[in-house]
Amino acid sequence: MKQHKPWFDEESFRFLDQRKQDKMQWLQDPNPSNVDNLNTVRCEATRHCRNKENEYFKAKIGELETNSKIKNISYLYRGISDFKDYQPRTKIVKGEKGDLVTDCHSILVRQRNHFSRLFSVPYMGLVLLGRQKHIQQNH
Questions:
Q1: pTM given for the model
Q2: pLDDT at position 122, please?
Q3: Residue 47, domain extent
Q4: Within this chain, do residues 16 and 74 fall inside the same structural domain, yes or no?
Q5: Is the residue at 1 inside a domain?
Q6: Cα–Cα distances in Å, from 84 out to 52, 61, 90?
């Protein structure tokens, strides 16, 4: 489920509804005028939603600054937790010699080598399982 967006209002809903109607009209009759109309409405809807979101976040940041200045720590941290949607991750893999590899290309080479070695070895479990069934069938 999508997270509730507090900046999304009735005007935003109208823009997205208009975009949906224009898309349906374009799907039913894909002529150049419908394509141009759809592209125009898409741009307007995107611009409106982006501006609304930017206004909301500017107000939220101003609120956080105010809470920081007046030493209202509980509201400050509560507001900061609203921004914790994305956390960048650092990819770290152990190399063959035990050193840490962080370069994307080196990680890809390491994984390719690891999995090629892993899949090039025949799996003995299937062979043994097949022999067990063969032995059971003969007895």
A1: 0.51
A2: 63
A3: 10-82
A4: yes
A5: no
A6: 19, 13, 17
Nearest to 10 by CA among 59, 47, 43, 48: 48
What backbone torsions phi and psi does residue 73 show, to the nearest 5 degrees? -70, -40
Contact yes or no for 94/101 (Cβ under 8 A) = yes
Contacts of 102 (CB under 8 A, 6+ apart): 90, 91, 92, 93
* Amino acid in the structure at residue 101: V
CB 93 within 8 A of CB 110: yes
What's the mean per-residue pLDDT of the chain? Answer: 79
Question: Is residue 99 domain-shared with residue 78, that is, in the same domain?
Answer: no
Q: Are residues 131 and 72 in the same domain?
A: no
Q: What is the pLDDT of residue 39?
A: 93
7: tokens are 């900046």
